[in-house]
Amino acid sequence: MATDREAVVWTRMSMRPAKMGRIYLTGSECRFTYAEDFLKTGLPGLGVVYPPGIIQRTTIVRQRTEFFDLLPPLQSLVPPRSERNFQRQLILGYLADKGIVPAQGFDADWAILMNAGHGGIGHLDVFENDNAAMDWYRFPQKQDLRAVTDEFGFTLKEFLTWFSVDSDVLIQLIGPSPSVGGAIPKLLVSIPKSGWDGRIGLPIRDGVGGLIDAILKFEQTATYPGIIELEALALDLHEEAGFEVPRRWQTEINGIPTLVIERFDRDVAGTPVFTETLYSVMASGDRRITNHYSTSYDAIGRAIESSPIDLVREKKEANLHLLKRLLYALATGNGDLHLENMSVINRDGTLSFSPVYDPTPMRAYSIHNMLTVMPFGGYGEVHLKEALLRFAANLGFKQKKLTDLIEEVLSVTSSYPARIKALKKLPGANKKNLIKIVSAMKTDLGEIK
């Protein structure tokens, strides 16, 4: 990197935009300092591990590595470097349309951050400078809802100018059917507060009555046929199990199976709520964590219990949540419960686990057929029963609590195989595979007494 770089972080957590601080990047370090005025607000800051009340004006310094050029909460705003990542390719196409073609690697990351590091998931907005921030926040925003029609691919042009306001978007990247390979394509939109009715608008930048922010997730049928109805079923099951789950609507847009999910990182007025993935939290506190699965569930429990900065307020409740999430992941065939699929949220000054999201039973697809993406209780060295007993004990729970939870899980999921069989879009081979997996797991869990 030839020169140092600077940028600013803003937030709308107080409804009105506020400058949180400044990023300064050298060839070897990422540095961040809170703005003095922000410290007076009492708002949560960059991330759980960087509380403004403790950090104050001390500059946070982190050495850059091949895994993190930026502090983890900021790195999370940049889509991974993959040609198969829909969001990354979409933004790079948008930049190319503006005549910006950065070199691969960090040059591209920085360009993405400066042009699309605001208005996304979470409470952080990154800009090149304060003027760019103020221009973006005060730009008049149309909040008209439009019905989704066959012209949807072309009206996406307006929605994608959420990134900026002064240039067209390369719609050829999407066409009428968003289907770029890789991560499930997602678009941020607003919908009526009453729920999905086939109309969408731009995401909310300021308080707007009658609207809520939502995520549209499009199925890539060629790669993951039936994944939308499978995710919807998994969300239903978790809600039936007593987990908090966002409102959602299963639909089709121009023949594309789509899941519309209300965003929990926004309140009823559309104001951002402090949220942070466990990947960002854990990587901020432990530099040995280099990807979203390079730890264990046991390590999450240890962090909840022993971190010098509270990750959650109610630790026992959080450990119970973690244990139940793993049990339901096992019982439903979700081997993909990694650090990016769990988050913490700050509501009224209280940190806790966020509502459940992305609990899709990925073991239905043979390329993702693994018991779990992260270890627990020494599983692999010991059998499942012993691993679960160890994991529960590491979280502070006795065997009786574990067996009671397993009984509950088996009860809630008792109709799960039949519900899988009734799915309309999931191919027969995938149904058969998933039913076989969860049936075997039911037997294994039932043997834990």
Brief descriptors of the model:
449 residues, Phosphatidylinositol 3-kinase Catalytic Subunit, Chain A, Domain 5, five-stranded antiparallel sheet, four-stranded antiparallel sheet, 14 strands, 34% helix
What report would you give on this structure?
The chain has helices at residues 36-39, 52-55, 72-75, 86-97, 106-116, 130-138, 152-160, 227-240, 278-285, 297-306, 315-332, 384-394, 399-412, 416-421, 428-446, and strands at residues 5-11, 18-25, 29-34, 60-63, 125-127, 146-147, 186-192, 199-200, 211-218, 248-253, 256-262, 275-277, 343-347, 350-353. It is an alpha+beta fold and 449 residues long. It has 3 domains: 5-77 and 117-137, no CATH class; 140-262, no CATH class; 275-446, Phosphatidylinositol 3-kinase Catalytic Subunit, Chain A, Domain 5 (Orthogonal Bundle), CATH 1.10.1070. The longest helix is centred in the last third of the chain and has 19 residues, at 428-446. Residues 153-183 have low confidence and may be disordered.
What proportion of the residues form beta strands (DSSP E)? 15-25%
Work out the helicity level.
25-40%
Q: Give helix and strand order, one letter per element, not per position.
A: EEEHHEHHHEHEHEEEHEEEHHHEEHHHH
What is the CATH first-level class name of the largest domain? Mainly Alpha
Number of helices: 15
- The chain-level structural class is alpha+beta
- Please summarize the sheet with the most strands: 5 strands, antiparallel
